Amino acid sequence: MKKVQVLRTVIGLAALTWMLLSYGVVPDADAVVDDRFAQIRTTLIVLAVTFPVAVAAFIAAARPPHRRMFLRRAVKPAGALLVLVVTLGAPRLITGLGYVTEETDWTSSAGRVALLFALGAFLLWLAPFGLYGIGQSLVHVFRTADLHETVPPLLAALLVWEVALFDMIRGTYEGVPFAVRIVFILGAPLSVTAVAMWELRRLRTRHGITLRGALLR
């Protein structure tokens, strides 16, 4: 499953890069990277909002004693979400509290110079963990397999459709022909949903794991 997911992601990124550059949506490769980071940021925001609602609905739909069991298991996915939010929010918090601004004069005192090096070292230390955490969070959907094996594919499918709807509302890929635009906006949710349904089918046929069994329905 992981190989298929990685292959789908690579093909999708290659096709998207070609489209962005071919139709002049972005001027160069650096802009493509910026566009992808913006998309990841949007995805994480949507996931952070969807995650507690979807998990709460899943637990509420389960019958006792599974409901109590899932409630205990939800601690780890919730912890993963909290850690990622804190990690990504730390640099923003530093600037938001006014310790660092665009007008900061780093050479005004020895303390400011020391603070500059300390912040730089902290961000360099933090960056690999943040990037790795983003990748793992998206691949494993915030460790929701710890809740139940059927949750990650279901949550992933829900997430990509929410992001696609958001892209359609805000008019993503303006300047691209309508047909191409629709293909790229709907391509991700359709492909992710197909992989998710295949994963659910494999769980059912090879391991006897089903959503109804998890909920005791």
Number of strand segments: 0
- Proportion of helical residues: over 70%
Low-confidence stretches: none
Radius of gyration: 21 Å
**How large is the share of residues in beta strands?**
under 5%
* Terminal CA distance: 27 Å
Largest sheet geometry: none
Structural class: mainly alpha
Number of helices: 8
Shape: globular
What is the ordering of alpha helices and beta strands? HHHHHHHH
* Mean model confidence by pLDDT: 76
Protein model, in words:
This protein is an all-alpha fold and 217 residues long. Helix content is 78%, strand content 0%. It has eight helices and no strands. Helix 1 packs antiparallel against helix 7, helix 4 runs antiparallel to helix 5 and helix 6 runs antiparallel to helix 7. The longest helix is centred in the N-terminal third of the chain and has 33 residues. It is globular and about 65 Å long.
Quick summary of this structure?
The chain has 8 helices and no strands.
What is the strand and helix layout of this fold?
Elements: H1 2-22, H2 29-61, H3 66-73, H4 75-96, H5 110-140, H6 151-170, H7 178-207, H8 211-215
Summary keywords:
0% strand; 78% helix; 8 helices; globular; 217 residues; mainly alpha
